[in-house]
Design goal:
With 190 residues, this protein is mainly α. Helices cover 81% and strands 0% of the residues.
Length: 190
């Protein structure tokens, strides 16, 4: 072992040994400097990522809050429209006897053909043809006041559907505007 150390020492005293020793020292210093720079760069990037995540988290929370507010407004508008529809339907149902009197019920014959056509339209199908010997002009037995009550109920269902579609469309437009305003393409990776 001592002989090996003596041989290395003699080699290092030669010009080639000096050059190798100097080059080795430079390589070690360069590696340490490089490692320090990489470590420093990694630490800086980790700190920057923590900041980016914090900003993104705050922005996501802000957008989620704005989105929830849009949904809440849409639900409140829909509830108000549905409540108005229920109240109006109740009022109209109460007024049927005023506007369609029992005298009008007695004078008006609702034909079977009309009832079949109306039922088909409500179901979204082609009307069933009259049976053999059945006239489309025959009395259906339906009185005008019942038809009026049914019309009020159908109108209420229609207005409920319109209110829901309107609320959905308004919600969608507001959410799309929020998305467009707050969402952007991701930043390229460093």
């Amino acid at each position: 072992m001592i002989a090996t150390l003596v041989a290395v020492w003699r080699f290092l005293k030669t010009p080639l040994g000096h050059a190798l020793f100097f080059a080795s020292g430079l390589m070690i210093i360069g590696a340490l400097v490089y490692q320090g720079g990489v470590s420093s760069g990694v630490d800086r990037e980790k700190a920057a990522e923590v900041k980016r995540v914090a900003v993104a988290t705050r922005e996501a929370a802000r957008v989620a809050k704005a989105s929830a507010a849009i949904s809440s407004q849409a639900q409140q508008a829909l509830n108000a429209a549905l409540n108005r529809n229920v109240a109006l339907t109740y009022q109209l149902q109460q007024k049927v006897p005023t506007y369609v009197t029992s005298q009008a019920d007695r004078r008006c014959i609702i034909p079977a053909g009309y009832v079949r056509l109306r039922n088909a339209a409500g179901a979204g199908v082609d009307p069933v043809p009259a049976g053999a010997g059945g006239s489309v002009d025959a009395d259906s037995g339906l009185v005008l006041s019942e038809l009026a009550r049914n019309d009020v109920s159908n109108a209420a269902a229609f207005h409920t559907a319109v209110a829901e579609v309107t609320a959905w469309r308004d919600w969608y437009v507001a959410q799309a505007a929020l998305w467009t305003k707050t969402t952007r393409a991701p930043e390229p990776a460093p």
